[in-house]
Amino acid sequence: MHEVFGKDIPGNEKIGESWELSDLPEDKSKITNGELAGQTLISAIEKFPMEITGMKYFEDPFPLLIKFLDAQDILSVQVHPDEKTCQRLGEGEPKTECWYIISAEPEAIIYKGIKKGVTKSQFASAIKKGEVEDLLVKVQVKEGECHFLPAGTAHAIGPGLLIAEIQLPSDTTYRIFDWNRIDENGNARELHIEQALESIHLNMSEDELPVTKIGRLVDCEYFKIDKGHQAKNCEVLLSPNQMKTLIFLSGYGTILGTEAEAVEFKAGDCILIPAVYEGAMRFSDDTQYLTVTI
Length: 294
What we know:
mainly beta, Jelly Rolls, 2 domains, six-stranded antiparallel beta sheet, five-stranded antiparallel beta sheet
C-alpha cells in the first residue's frame, strides 16, 4: 500500500488492510474536505440524506465497506454468513463481497468455493484433520480481474496480492482453517467451525463464481461496480441524481464541479460523489478506476 499508493504505513508494523470507506461501530469514515470536513459520513447523511444519497429516507449503516488488502502471506480460510444464516444462528451480519486484483505477483492464487461433490461431513472431517486445502477450488489470478464472492463462499487470499475489496458493511467472519499455524507461544488462532459449517454454501464453485475484467464487473442486489479506463487529458461527466463512490487504481487528475471547489485525486483515493453533485473528472494521466453504486 505504501509502494503502490504512497500511503503512510509505519515501517515496523504489519498492516494488512486499509479501510477506505466504512460505517462500522469501531471505524466510521470522516469527511476530509469542504464544509462538512471532520464529520462522519453517516452524520452528514442524516442532515442531508437527499443531497448525498438521492433518497429522502436513508437508514444507517452506510451500505458499503471498501478496503485495500495487502497480502504478503496466505490468509486464513474464511466464510461469511448470508441473511438466512444470521437469522438461524441469531448472530452476525451478512456479507457479500468482491475482490478486484490491483496487482499480483506471478502465479499468485486465491481459493474460492469448494470442489463439486464435497459433502458437509467430508468438509468437517477435513477441518478436524487439518487437510482443507485439497477440497478448495484454487484459482490463479491476474491483475485486472474481479472475483465475486457471495455470502456463503469459502475463500482465502494467497500471498503477493494487492486487492480492492468492496463488500456489505459487516465484520462477521468465521475462520475455517489457518493452515495449521501457531504463534510464538505455540497457540493456534481461534476457529469458528460450527458457525462456518452453518454458513457455507457447498454449491459455490467456479461455475457459480464468474470472473469479470471489463465494463460492469459486479451487478448484484447490494451493489454494482463498473470499471473505467481513461487516457491523459480526457474528461468524463459526473451527472447528478445518483450517489457514486470512486476508487482510483492508477493515475491522477481533478474533479471539477459546477458549484464546488476542484478536488484533486490520485491512485489509492476513495471519493464519494453526492447525488446532487454535477461536474466532470479531468484526467491528467492514464487512469483506471472503479465506480461503485448501490
